[in-house]
Design goal:
By secondary structure, this protein is α+β, with helices and mostly antiparallel strands. It has 2 domains: 153 residues; 110 residues, Immunoglobulin-like, CATH 2.60.40. A hairpin with a 2-residue loop joins strand 1 and strand 2. It is elongated, with a radius of gyration of 31 Å.
Length: 267
Amino acid sequence: MNIEQLSTMTEADLQATADRHLLIIDGQYTSDMEKQYHVSQAQFFLAELDRRKQTQERVESGKIADRDYKLEKWVIWLIGAELVLAVVGLLFGWIEGAKQTKVLDQLNQSGAATAATLTALQKAQEASLDTQQHTLDNIITMNNALQDQLDQNLTGVIQYGGGMSGNGIYRVNLDNNGKDVLSLWGNKFGNNSPAMKKQPTILNPGDSVTLDISDLIAKAQKQQGSSGLNIPIELYLTRDDGTKYVAKGTILGNGYIPHMTTTRKQW
């Protein structure tokens, strides 16, 4: 089979081919070498089927990311408009303050009139402070909303991008599927202590990092056995602004990581 023939196979064809190889393994007169061959063939077609599903998921994720990016631009525009209104309000308050000072100078000749004017001025200043406080609260609310939106966009940013398994060697590729530059500072596997680095690995959008988990898988298989093997994994990340995140997932016995979730968390 060549690449062109493989590309023309449907998902049903891939599944059927993998099933056919697996059925041959159960044959009574199948040798160990033949079994190994059919196992590798079944893994090959299943890997191709999984790759196609992941490609489709990436396309859907890209559409969602574009939609969220447009929403982010609207949020930023609203924050900018709020800031402009705040500056206009401050300028208006300064002009009004200048006018009120002039009125005070003119009313210094009359104690009673001055007292009444000061009372009115105090109320006006309190109203102006209330307005400015309200504007500040709105800006803080908008900033929090923007941060929450950015956190939501990073939920699925780190995902399994393929790997290698066989002959006791296990490697996994973890991809940056987002639009932000991320810095990888360390990782943690199972109950082991976190392994941190002095200098981070920079992950630009579309970049991937390869982790060798051969020793980890071998140790876990001795302790838990190959069936039902689950190893928790954590990656310690930061964005350009210093915000810290933790990406979590579970490594299965074949080195595959079904899904990883990234959340904002101090470490």
